[in-house]
TrEMBL record:
This is histidine kinase. The chain crosses the membrane at residues 7-29, 141-163. It comes from the Bacteria. GO terms for molecular function: phosphorelay sensor kinase activity. It comes from Olivibacter domesticus (Pseudosphingobacterium domesticum). InterPro entries: HATPase_C_sf, HATPase_dom, His_kinase_dom, HisK_dim/P_dom, HisK_dim/P_sf, Sig_transdc_His_kin-like_C, TCS_sensor_his_kinase.
């Protein structure tokens, strides 16, 4: 899970917990405050009732009945005045919750009860107010509060996500520009990422220092390979010339001729290996220009003609299915070597009377090239090692120095071409090249 998603998840969970806790606290406080205000309102009503009370008023209210009861039209409030024989606590009030049935309807009331003595007579005053109003009020307050909290949390969460993405943008830029899009340490960008977050500044600097060390080591390695290869070519060429002259000696025995000829073949193999190493070094050092327009269908046609005898030796059917108008920009010599090496490998590891098919499609702004063969195929482990230098496959009797596909990889990296290999053992191999479409 990405860091930004983890932060967003953490913020979401904490805010949900905050909503639940605050909702519970608000509910408890709302219930207490509502009850308190309802009690105060009932006491005020009792005081108003008592303030204008006279004996005539009491007599008029009670008249001949045992007590006086008055409900409002909606049954939300009532007042009951009852004469009693004895008052336990004069001028004492209390509050109780009672359920009463009025005209067939059951209501729950908060009842304020007040005992008092007036003109040597004892009375009980009861003032009640339905709890449904209180419940509706509490529900409205709670829903409103929950809605406000929910909207607030949602807004703050969106702001948090936006801020987190903005905060982590330099990190993703560093990963994208300086890791994902870098195919070679020599093309690494040493331009510092603009950020005021010290952690990202430290990461950027550390990465640049590391890549600088790697680049220096690679430069030394490439320079060494180039120098050694140049130094070896001269004596090898000299030895080859001497062996060729010896082979022209008519007095040479058959056994000596065979030994000298085998040595000459070995020198030729070494010479070809050294030239390939020099080619890789030149490619990786950027010594080639790559701004020529190349018609791929024509290029494959030329390579097919060059390898006509090799194809015929295995009776392989070659299908050039590339569109005639497919062009790329690159170094024609290197692209020729890349295609030739892929086709040569497809022939080398193919079956007799097998097939080789080269086709293309356009996808996501790239030209996708497919090199398909019906050869011996490879295991998944072999696919992982296919572009390693000096990697050879013992399943083929053909000789090779294991640098052909290493050269392919170097040329592909030089031209920003992505390579994907898929293979099924004993069925064949498909190599995909993803080439950027050149802009006019």
């Amino acid at each position: 899970m990405k860091l930004s998603n983890k932060i967003a998840l953490y913020n979401s969970l904490t805010k949900i917990v905050i909503i639940l806790v605050l909702s519970f606290v608000i509910y408890v406080f709302t219930d207490g405050i509502s009850n308190y205000h309802l009690q105060e309102r009932l006491v005020d009503k009792g005081k108003k009732f008592m303030s204008g009370l006279t004996q005539d008023h009491i007599d008029d209210l009670i008249q001949s009945q045992v007590n006086f009861t008055d409900y409002n039209i909606l049954k939300e409030e009532f007042i009951i005045l009852t004469p009693i024989r004895k008052v336990i606590n004069v001028n004492h009030d209390n509050f109780t919750k009672q359920t009463r049935e009025i005209e067939g309807e059951v209501h729950e009331y908060l009842v304020y009860t007040y005992y008092f003595r007036f003109n040597h007579h004892n009375y009980r005053l009861e003032i009640g107010e339905t709890m449904s109003v209180l419940a509706q009020l509490e529900k409205s307050i709670w829903l409103f509060t929950f809605l406000v909290l929910f909207i607030s949390v949602a807004v703050t969460l969106i702001i948090d996500i936006a801020f987190t993405n903005r905060l982590l943008r330099p990190f993703y830029n560093i990963v994208d520009k300086k890791l994902n899009k870098i195919h070679d340490p020599l093309s690494f960008s040493y331009v510092p990422e603009k950020t005021n977050t010290e952690d990202f500044v430290l990461l950027d600097k550390s990465l640049m220092q590391l890549m600088e060390k790697v680049s220096k080591q690679l430069d030394v390695e490439k320079q060494f390979t180039s120098n050694v290869s140049h130094e070896l070519l001269t004596p090898i060429s000299t030895l080859s010339t001497r062996f060729e002259n010896l082979l022209n000696d008519e007095s040479l025995s058959a056994a000596a001729f065979k030994k000298i000829n085998d040595s000459l073949l070995t020198l030729t193999f070494i010479k070809r290996t050294i030239k390939d190493l020099l080619l890789i070094a030149k490619i990786e050092n950027g010594q080639y220009e790559k701004f020529e327009e190349i018609n791929l269908a024509n290029l494959v046609g030329e390579i097919e003609m060059e390898m006509e005898d090799l194809l015929a030796s295995k009776d392989i059917h070659f299908h050039n299915m590339l569109a005639k108008d497919i062009h790329i920009k690159g170094n024609s010599t290197l692209i020729h070597i890349l295609f030739a090496n892929l086709i040569k490998n497809a022939i080398k590891y193919n079956k007799r009377q097998g097939t080789i098919k080269i086709s293309n499609e356009i996808k996501d702004g790239n030209i996708i090239l497919f090199f398909e063969d019906s050869g011996i195929g490879m295991t998944e482990e072999a696919v992982q090692r296919i572009f390693n230098r000096y990697e050879r496959f013992s399943t083929s009797p053909e000789e090779g120095h294991g640098l052909g596909l290493a050269i392919v990889k170097s040329i592909a990296v030089f031209h920003a071409v992505d390579i994907h290999v898929s293979s099924i053992l004993h069925e064949g191999t498909t190599i995909e090249l993803s080439v950027p479409i050149p802009h006019s």
